[in-house]
Amino acid sequence: MKYQYRDEKTECMPRRDLEALQLERLRRTVDHALRAPFYRERLSAAGIRDGGGIKSLDDLKRIPFTSKKDLRDGFPWGFLSIPKEDVIRLHTSSGTTGIPTTIYFSRDDLARWTGYVARCIYGAGCNKSDVFQNMITYGLFTGGLGFHAGAEEVGMLVIPSGPGNTTRQFRLMRDFGTTVVHATPSFLLHVETKMKEEGVKRESLFLKRAFAGAEPYSEDTRRRIEELLRIDVYNSYGLSEMNGPGVAFECQAKNGLHIWEDGYIAEIINPDTLEPAAGGETGELVLTILCREASPLLRYRTRDLTGFYDEPCPCGRTHRRLRRITGRSDDMLIINGVNVFPSQIEEAIMAMKEVGNNYLIVVEKEGVLDKLTVKTEVGPDVFMDDSRPLNALRERIRKTIQASITVNPRVELHEHGSLPVSEGKAVRVRDTRPKDV
Ligand code: DLL
To answer: How far apart are CA 363 and CA 372, in angstroms?
Structure first.
């Protein structure tokens, strides 16, 4: 395969040069950070008075972690490190409650961010002849505007459709010959369900690729979307604290997400001991952003669980690859004492052909015990009025989930396309148990 690069020199840079570049940028970032009230205090307490004090990348360890709580405590201006009049945009995190975490951008910050997103898009094999339909939320969420700018930079024709209204989405796809779409994986599955419902023929569309991210999904879900929609799906990872999308992305080899190490320093730590995770072990991703001056963030604890792939990528890029993010350390459900990640349930069910495109995990208190219910849609070929095969399917799903998580779930089957779909990130878990105060 002929791999496509936007900036081959940087993307395939020898590791030694890449690390030298990281060190230089880390020093500059620390200098910037020292202008923000939060870091002035935090870094001085750690004995760091200027970027020059960072002698090697190993010195990163001297810098304390930054948490989401720190960001909230510093709201609204505690992390700002340039004059307010030089800020030209802000974005906030997708959290729906409490104080949002806010990130500011200077003009140069936006240009750099756009460059990283364009690098991702190009690396997935797109170019200016593509028509790009951005079916993700615009606004404070970084997915819409971030990809919009990156796609324009590549020179694709951008259709800023946003999510929702599948009938209009199909019309736009047909009218303008959309070749690439961007959406959450759950919305892509919904699009496929609606395609069947609305009788849209796959042959009437020109789709080749999709970028899917902003929420965790399994390899089976990717395969399912690829097979049903007959497209290549590229995993896209990012978070608003690190600009948004454009942090890590799959290349055409589609085996792990290259994290752009000229813009980010990635560490994987054990979330309990806070020590580096050994080798390719799974742990919490900690990121330092090197490409933003307005709101620097040093050693930010993302809570996302992943690990590095050690072997080199056939594409020749030297930037390390992250494994598919399976979820967040704070996603973990404890059900009658057993630790369960929603991704384990998704992995168990999405490999089953008779299971439809949508599911919901419900955890409730029943007396003193926790009760887990997994509601899944059935595929379009499964008839809801034929109880014998339905009971057998329900039992098979129950056993598959139990084998994976050891908890015995109640399984409810729902008609294809009948469970609620959200326009933004999918809500996969409803936990109604009273919270310990
Ligand atoms: O979701 C930014 C984004 C937009 C990424 C569009 C990709 C595409 P936030 O709303 O701040 O930002 O949410 C970030 O979403 O910490 C992960 O927990 C999760 N997440 C994002 N991408 C992936 C992915 C955007 N590919 C949080 N796989 C992150 C798994 C993901 N989880």
So the answer is: 5
CB of 215 sitting under 6 A from ligand 1: yes
* Atom number in ligand 1 closest to CA 236: 26
Does ligand 1 have an atom closer than 6 angstroms to the CB of 184? Answer: no
In this prediction, residue 371 carries a pLDDT of 96
Q: Is the CB of 323 under 6 A from ligand 1?
A: no
pLDDT tens for each residue of 154-178:
999 999 999 999 999 999 999 999 9
Could you give all domains of the chain from N- to C-terminal order, each with its CATH number? 1-330 (3.40.50.12780), 332-431 (3.30.300.30)
101 lines ligand 1 (CB under 6 A): no
Neighbours of 174 (CB within 10 A): 14
